[in-house]
Amino acid sequence: MISDSSMPYSAPTLAPGADDDQLLHVSLGPQHPSTHGVFRMNVVLDGETVVSLKPVFGYLHRNHEKIAEGVTYLSSMPYTDRLDYICPLSNNWAYAHAVEKLAGIEVPERAEYMRVILAELTRLINHTAFMGFILGDMGAWGSALMYAFRERELILDLFEDLTGARMMANFMRFGGCRNDLPAGWAEKCSVLVDDYGPFLDEMEKFLVGNEILLARCQDVGQLPKETLINGGITGPMLRAAGVNYDIRKAEPYGIYERFSFRIPLGDKGDCYDRIMIRFLEMRESLKILRQALDQLPEGEYVNPKAKIRGFKPPVGEAYARIEGPKGELGFHLISDGTVNPYRYRVRPPSFINLTLLEDMCLGLDLADVVIILGSIDIVLGEVDR
Amino acid sequence: MNLFAAISTEPALWSPEWLPRLPQRLVEMLLGFLGAPEWLVSIAGFLVAAGTVVGVFLGGFALLSLIERKTLARIQNRIGPNRAGWFGILQPVADGIKMLTKEDIVPAKAEKFLHLLAPILIVVPAILALGVIPYGREWTPVSLELGLLFFFAVGSLTELSVFIAGWASGSKFPMLGAMRAISQMVSYELPLIISALGVVMVSGTLSLPLIVEQQGGFHLGFIPAWNLFTPWGFFAGILFFICSIAEANRCPFDLPEGESEIVAGHMTEYSGFKYALFFMGEYLGLFAISALGITLFLGGWQAPLPGLGFLPSWIWFFGKLAIVIFMFLWIRGTYPRVRIDQLMRFAWLCMIPMALLTLPAAGIWTILNRDGHGFLAWAITVPLLLIPCVIVTVIFNRRLASANRTYRFAE
Amino acid sequence: MKTGKPTRWVLPGLGLFQGLAVTGKNMVQSFYKKERMTTVQYPEERAPISPNFRNFPFLVYDKDPKAGLRCTACSICEKECPPQCIYIVLDRDENGKSLKRPKVFDIDLSVCMNCGICSEVCPFDSIYMDGEYELSTDDRFGGLLFGLDRLSKSAEYHMKLRPEQASEVMARRKADEEKKAAAAAAKLAKAKADAEAKKAEAEAKAAEGKGEDA
Amino acid sequence: MIPLLILSPLILLAAIGAVWMARPVHAALMLALTLALVAVLYLALGAEFIGLVQFAVYVGAVAVLIVFSLLITRPGDEAEEIERRPRSLVTGLLCTLPVMAVLAYTAASGSNIKLIPWQPKLSIAELGEVLFTSHAPAVLALAVLLTAVLIGAALFAREPDKTQDDSSEK
């Protein structure tokens, strides 16, 4: 826990081991309806206010990085789908981006456009599902979730037509994509992008003015900018506090310079701002999708010279990062010239955004802890790897 | 031969108005025919009347558990249970069998007897309260002279049973749930009773059938003279509706069993039929509180339009009950949960003062109307009630403005 | 809480009523608007699967399931498969020469994550991803271990399952056949040509021989 | 007379239970039971209004508040409660002796007790008028007392938490 003078309040932090019989030790256990998967928090409550909160995770650890050292570069591509299983295609792109940087493979135009379209569609899925989950945590179980999942289904159908599987896409290859867009896919996608605007208006009418949501989310889980930056927080959580840091603009990768889009910034950084920032980001993604679909060129979907089997990148090291829906998703690869990587490291945004959970929750209620965890938007596949 | 006497004095056996009392009259005639003593006949008749009330509302409970899932499903663009029976009609039966066959686990640290007592103590007051509501012109199972007082006396027993459920389960989450439930119920009982006081002050009696009779007749030909269409009545009716949501632990205020925070509140350690009893208690409580709301503000079994006298009166009661319960379901499908301290602040700082305000308004209304100054009554009560609303709007907007968020866009 | 000057006046309950309006609209429209109701009554109606949908792999054989199997047991897919769920044993005749045919080809479907890498790396177009998804069995261990008999399916099935992919594969194979046939024919022709040339020389030599002794 | 004969021993037993029970929660619940039985007694004697008010006020509010405070404070275990019983038994008897004596004396000198003739059922409207006309000062005094108690309780409940105050100024 990062304790520095800039803390907004000095809630009594429980010294480890000091116990008072009036305190209530509650374990929001791995098997709990609102912890987004197997994640446990040992919360010490004084009445209803949180005195100390120790996160416990690792229940979903699948040894992803050690397995990657044992299999070929191509074979660990399907495993990247399982990292953040809400947005598999942006994980694929991050991994392919890292290997291309390592081996110096260029990507043809059409593949770059396809990657941008798929990444922005994944961002839409993630933020829409986020709205559903945060409302579920707050108690409106079902309504917002079902509306979000109805729209998500339409996008997943598009992914199934293109990549063959709704979620486990395994679609990117080093130097482009696995197969070309089937006939009529681009038209279906632009129809979906046009219908998404009205859906977002409906969701905003449903959520933004809702007094209960205002009361529950405003000034909850607020941290000053310095603490967020010190904690290494990236993504919508950081931008909600007003820090202008989006990798698509800070270090443009792929062909993001060609599209004109803006980065929404909040001013207080509490749960309400995080929800609003995600709404505005969805609007920006729609703009990018519209431009990318209009400029989609013809041509090869993969670099013909890229080898599929026995791909041996040169000895060396590369770190490539993309702006995933949850934050900066980075892959650090060290290659010793053989078929399998020497070291394969994932920079998981959910895991790093989770480290400041206790700082946000001190002094608040048990009900707020659940919403703050929801507003960080973690996926346990990425937290535990 | 009192058999024929029974027929000649009262209206025809099969008249629709008397349909709800049919089982009772049949049993009385049968026993009378068999020559049973007078007190036995009255007791048997009374028991059968109580039986019809329990039967109707248990059937209503089963139906409501299905209708709730169907309406929530429709709100969420789903279809809802349609596998058990035709259009899911047998779903309540399936749930009932499931609840009966599930193993009934009692935690080791629980106090056995109290653990068993709690669900019973939740269902009993709800059924008692249902016995005193006038469902039709001829059908008030128990027409007490202190009907309203009886309703609130019995209604307050549920807090005790929620505590027993929370305490007897022995583990942490039920304790938290019980703490929340009691503080919520205690602080929302007050505005509930105060807003009901307005009606008592206007109609001058505590007996529910009389209250409904006084809401008969029509203003200007087609506006029914229900309490809801008077300034103070509209105000008190809305407060009553909000408090009944909190009293029945329904959606925006369903803190005690907030599943995303403390799993299932005081019901966590229950399984099998005891868990079903809790649900029955909750739904019957919902029926009771909305039935009372209809009796006090929506004119119980009074017909909404003048020309509809020929239909039996209890149809209107159950029609209004369906509408009010649909409002509960609609709200359940829409709103997230309120936090515990906001719930308390809302009750003590907003609901109780507003409820206290309806009392003088109702008082002025009755006095002025009794002296015939109808227009003056409106002229005084409407501004009297609207001023605090304006004040609340100003405060709310000022606070909203300070909490307003400006979102910059970096290029 | 410092209180600022409100720019836009809002009725306190307005947000709540908007929420009700949205859910109400959804509820009413779910009765007549089709795109709101996305659920399908599964056992009776089935949602159509897209042509690209890939589930577990299957082996393709041309005409005869035993002889026409395209797979030559090169076991590249066995090496490339990420979860290592393919097991191949090469078929050898009695004196140990490989018959270029798998004797055993097992895929453990409970391990396979239908990623499709085996179909990508297969040089002989013999393994493709199936579209059949109703494979649940109650037998925990052997039930999902598919052997050669359950895996191999005809080329016509592949054509029915994925018309454009199958036709592309058929075209490519036909082209290879012709090329091979052409090459064989060319080799044959060359061999015949050499033979004739040799014969012609032989006759010429014979003719000279006859010429001299005549 | 029959309800009296059935109910009064029950009330006595419940009251003893309320005193005798070791665990505080059991004692509180027995107290609620006693109050409920007293309410049933009023109803049996025909005083409906008093019976229902007793049920609503005592069982509905007082018992719940006692039990609620038990829930929050979570009192200690009942071991030392049990070994303190003999001493509490003695003090209890000492307190009840004078009360018993007064009761016995009044019952014995039964001469000056006038049996009030059976009055018709008291209508609530009449009760209301009497309450706010002839007994108005008593009601007002009670009202002032209750508000004072309420404000006092509110002041006690708000812990003078220094950290909370200075943080709101910052």
Task: Give a written overview of the molecule.
The complex is a heterotetramer of chains A (385), B (411), C (214) and D (170). Chain A is of the alpha+beta class. Chain A has helices spanning 64-70, 77-81, 88-103, 109-138, 143-163, 185-207, 211-217, 225-231, 236-240, 247-250, 271-294, 349-354, 357-361, 366-376, 380-384, and strands spanning 24-28, 40-46, 49-56, 172-173, 176-177, 263-265, 316-324, 327-335, 343-347. Chain A is built from 15 helices and 9 strands. Chain A has a 3-stranded antiparallel sheet with strand order 1-2-3. Chain A is globular. The model of chain A is unreliable at 1-12 (pLDDT under 50). Chain B is mostly helical and 411 residues long. Chain B has helices at 2-9, 22-34, 38-75, 91-101, 112-130, 147-155, 157-168, 172-203, 208-214, 231-247, 259-262, 273-297, 313-332, 340-370, 374-402, and strands at 218-219, 223-224, 408-410. The longest helix of chain B has 38 residues, at 38-75. Among the domains of chain C are: 57-158, Alpha-Beta Plaits (2-Layer Sandwich), CATH 3.30.70.3270; 162-192. In chain C, strands 4-1-6 form a 3-stranded mixed sheet. In chain C, strands 2-3-5 form a 3-stranded antiparallel sheet. In chain C, helix 5 (155-161) packs across helix 6 (163-213). Chain C is elongated. Chain D contains 8 helices and no strands. In chain D, helix 1 runs antiparallel to helix 2 and helix 2 packs antiparallel against helix 3. Chain D is globular, with a radius of gyration of 22 Å. Mean pLDDT of chain D is 81; it is low at 164-170. The A-B interface holds A 24-26, 32-34, 48, 135-143, 145-147, 150, 210, 212-216, 218-219, 242, 244, 246, 249, 262-268, 272-273, 276-277, 280, 365-368, 370 and B 72, 75-78, 172-173, 175-176, 251-252, 254, 258-263, 333-342, 400, 403, 405-411.
